[in-house]
Design goal:
With 341 residues, the chain is α/β, with parallel strands linked by helices. It contains ten helices and ten strands. It has helices spanning 40-44, 51-73, 92-109, 118-129, 169-179, 186-193, 219-234, 241-267, 282-294, 311-323, and strands at 2-7, 12-21, 28-38, 80-88, 113-117, 137-142, 147-152, 158-163, 271-275, 298-300. The strands form two sheets. The chain has a five-stranded mixed sheet, with helices on both faces. Strand 1 and strand 2 form a beta hairpin. The relative contact order is 0.19.
Length: 341
């Protein structure tokens, strides 16, 4: 079965064709095409994503990337078994572009339409890189807008057992990266710079909340880092950017890893799937690998190409929703909130 996946929740316009058949032996989970049109260069001028600009860019790109995805996959629209589209959560104006395009395409050609949760799609990327992966497992979704822990009981069954109460890890990385003058996106640049510094140079609070909870809070960590930067400025001193990057990164990855370890003890899962844009962070990958070894668990992380927003992950998630009988019609609307997880 061929599924077209459409993604436009933030600043990447993506269309992909994925071939899926879980009834086959071995299972077929094959990416036939995965086209991504990035807006990074545009938003870099402003130091972050500008929603209005993002929406307009999606309008300009979505027809082109969809046509290219079908061409690269070597199929026609009529060969599609379903159209899957990210409907929530995300930037509402950006989401509406993908949802309305998907509705028009599916309705005009009589193709089943499936609405996809963006967070579930990030986790589904792991099914494409690990052909034998199947639930149950612990999912750790870390991105610019989300930092959550899920007990995944089935391909579509997610129970949130931990989440950030304020900012997300990705936003925390980008914020401090921007303040110390790193190019956008700050998180990626901070990852590299952290290798040049002393991770124990600055004492920073952990984002892992204390007590009987698996939740996080990154606002206090961001404030502490900003205070260090401002105090240095007031003293007319130069903050050691590499040391701050290393210490800040250490605080985040250790905080996330601590809660992952607690979640493994609580759930009994022995497989951990790390997903989302921040899953590309090399320090986080290394820390979670150590945590999984300590707890006798296996860490599964999609390749870097599937960590960011992309249509292939949407198609994979849409396939499993399709198998449950989930269908959307022309009344489908986008939502900025996480309505369906």
């Amino acid at each position: 079965m061929y599924i077209l996946g459409l993604e436009s929740s933030c600043d990447e316009t993506s269309a992909a064709v994925v071939e899926m058949d879980t009834s086959a032996s071995p299972q077929i989970r094959r990416i036939r095409s995965n086209i991504v049109a990035s807006q990074i260069e545009v938003h870099r001028l402003y130091g972050g994503v500008v929603p209005e600009i993002a929406g307009r860019a999606h309008i300009e790109a979505i027809t082109r990337v969809t046509a290219r995805a079908l061409e690269e996959a070597g199929i026609t629209v009529d060969q599609l078994g379903a159209v899957a589209v990210t409907a929530f959560p995300g930037l509402i104006g950006a989401l509406l572009v993908g949802v309305n395009f998907a509705k028009s395409l599916a309705y005009s050609r009589g193709i089943p339409l499936v609405a996809v949760n963006h967070i579930k799609a990030h986790v589904a990327a792991a099914y494409l890189s690990e052909p034998t992966l199947e639930p149950p497992f612990l999912a750790v979704v870390v991105s610019g807008g989300h930092t959550s822990l899920f007990s995944v009981t089935s391909y579509t069954g997610f129970e949130e057992i931990g989440a950030t109460r304020d900012d997300a890890a990705g936003e925390a990385f980008d914020k401090i990266g921007r303040v110390i003058g790193l190019p956008y996106p700050g998180g990626a640049a901070l990852d590299k710079l952290a290798y040049e510094g002393d991770p124990k140079a600055y004492t920073l609070p952990s984002p892992a909340l204390t007590g009987d909870t698996l939740d996080f809070s990154f606002s206090g960590l961001k404030t502490a880092a900003l205070n260090l930067i401002n105090q240095a400025k007031q003293k007319e001193e130069e903050i050691d950017r590499a040391n701050l990057a290393a210490s800040y990164t250490r605080a985040i990855v250790r905080g996330v890893s601590k809660k992952v370890g607690q979640a493994l003890d609580r759930t009994g899962h022995r497989t951990v799937v790390l997903a989302g844009g921040v899953a590309a962070n090399s320090h986080l990958r290394r820390e979670l690998e150590a945590t999984c070894r300590k707890h006798g668990a296996t860490l599964v992380t999609p390749p870097i190409s599937l960590c960011g927003d992309n249509g292939a992950m949407v198609a994979a998630a849409g396939y499993f929703e399709y198998l449950t009988g989930a269908r959307a019609d022309t009344s489908l609307n986008a939502s900025a909130n996480d309505d369906g997880c």
